[in-house]
Design a protein that fits this description.
Layout: E1 3-5, E2 11-13, E3 17-18, H1 24-37, E4 41-43, H2 51-60, E5 69-74, H3 81-95, E6 100-105, H4 115-127, E7 131-137, H5 141-150, E8 157-161, H6 169-177, E9 181-185, H7 198-207, H8 211-222, E10 225-226, H9 233-240, H10 249-256
Parallel strand pairs: 3-4, 4-5, 5-6, 6-7, 7-8, 8-9, 9-10
Antiparallel strand pairs: 1-2
Length: 276
């Protein structure tokens, strides 16, 4: 495992296991499998509706709680100072833990214009020691600019859509300049066309790896935190086996060159205001 140190001094595994779209009833088994394989970083969210299953897997694992880096996120309908504090309490109850390692604002929801109030709630949560680190997800340069101006501490991380079809060069550079780590969701571009790219196939043959493993290695070498998701034990294991090879610098650049500004798969955070 490789680790990065966040701007608040907290150490975070660079590779994690994501549970987006994993039903709560399955989360126990998949997280248990991930921990058994060696993952020590699990990423969930209130919106995923699987915090109970994730928490049970952590509690019943032989891996001590302090060795697992646990992330959850605040949903869009819970923005605002008091609402965010209540939502955090509910997540802790669902997870069955008294702290998380990282708590994120899931989306800025710019039309509601409450993300500064929400951030102040996260600052209190961190000050009280109930989240070791706090950060954001899907924030743009504009929303981060305001957060950095009006908050009392910078986010430790910005979790954004990021994959070879959408490599987010400008956003990664913005985060780097401000000491914010970048974390990639949908790191494999949701599979499909990306994993059929001839370039990834050729590199996979060269290193004896799958196209997915090549993409995950690309993320690690860019410095991204990355949280691939699978419910298949063999694929969960495959996604973990990316520390025994290294791409050449020119190969990293070739993969990055697959991208375009039009490669976004998910919602545009500048206009995404869903709160349901």
């Amino acid at each position: 495992m490789q680790y990065i140190t966040l701007n608040d001094g907290v150490s975070m595994p660079q590779l994690g296991y994501g549970v987006w779209q994993v039903p709560d009833a399955e989360a126990y088994d998949t997280v248990t499998a991930a921990l058994d394989i060696g993952y020590r970083h699990v990423d969930t969210a209130a919106a995923y509706e699987n915090e109970r299953g994730v928490g049970r897997a952590l509690r019943e694992s032989d891996v001590p709680r302090e060795e697992v880096f646990l992330t959850t996120k605040l949903w869009n309908g819970d923005h605002g100072y008091d609402a965010a504090l209540r939502a955090f309490d509910k997540s802790l109850e669902q997870l069955g833990t008294d702290y998380v390692d990282l708590y994120l604002i899931h989306w800025p929801v710019p039309d509601r214009d409450l993300y500064i109030e929400t951030w102040r709630a996260l600052e209190k949560i961190a000050a009280d020691g109930r989240a070791r680190a706090i950060g954001v997800s899907n924030f743009t340069a504009d929303t981060l600019d305001r957060l950095l101006r009006e908050g009392t501490r910078p986010p430790a991380i910005n979790q954004i859509e990021l994959h070879p079809y959408f490599p987010q060069k400008a956003m990664r550079e913005y985060d780097r300049r401000h000491g914010i780590a970048t974390e990639a969701w949908s790191p494999l571009g949701q599979g499909g066309a990306l994993l059929n790219e001839p370039l990834l196939g050729r590199l996979g043959e060269k290193y004896g790896k799958s196209p997915a493993q090549v993409v995950l290695r690309w993320h690690l070498q860019l410095g991204n935190v990355v949280i691939p998701k699978s419910v298949t034990p063999a694929r969960i294991r495959e996604n973990f086996e990316v520390f025994d090879f290294e791409l050449e610098v020119s190969e990293v650049e070739e993969i990055t060159a697959l991208g375009s500004d039009g490669g976004r798969i998910g919602p545009d955070p500048a206009v995404f205001n869903y709160v349901g």
